[in-house]
Amino acid sequence: MDQAQAVALAWMTVWIVALSIVDLRSRRLPDPMVATLLAGLVLLDAAAAVSGGRPGSLLWACVSALTYGGLLFTVRALAPSGLGGGDVKLAVPMGWQIGFAAGIGFPTAVLTALVLACLFALVWQVLGRLRGHGWPQTLAFGPWLGAAAVMVVSIT
To answer: What is the secondary structure of 74-139 as a DSSP string?
Structure first.
């Protein structure tokens, strides 16, 4: 991972932590925070692509952002009570960064991130149940989407 990618990963991680705190407390992912995360990633990655001579990475980032966002949009359309709109919006910057890092391998990376996010959420739910907290009415999925994306970008 080059220095530019490390800076983008740090930006993403800081915003994921902030968004996770908000999502766990309020079960909402505020649009301005998600938009700021995306804008920062686009600027950082555009600068890295231009300076590093790899403008094609921006194409993969766009395609991946549309793919991940579109995938979660489809899930939400099929099961509106199962996934929040904020999670769909958060998938766009997560997909962007995954695509920028993974390039042509973005489909595998996106699916890996989604499976990891689901596993993290499931483990969280089971641990809560085992501790006697019962099953909550809603699940904050944003923290798990973010954590999985950070992991995938870190190893890509």
So the answer is: HHHHH-TTTS-HHHHHHHHHHHHHHHHHHGGGHHHHHHHHHHHHHHHHHHHHHHHHHTT----SS-
pTM over 0.85: yes
Contact yes or no for 60/108 (Cβ under 8 A): no
Domain total for the chain? 1
Q: Which two tokens stand for residue 64?
A: 């991946």
131 SS3 class = coil
What kind and span of H or E run contains 146? helix 142-155
The residues of the chain scoring below 70 in pLDDT are: 133-137
Structural domain boundaries enclosing 68: 3-155
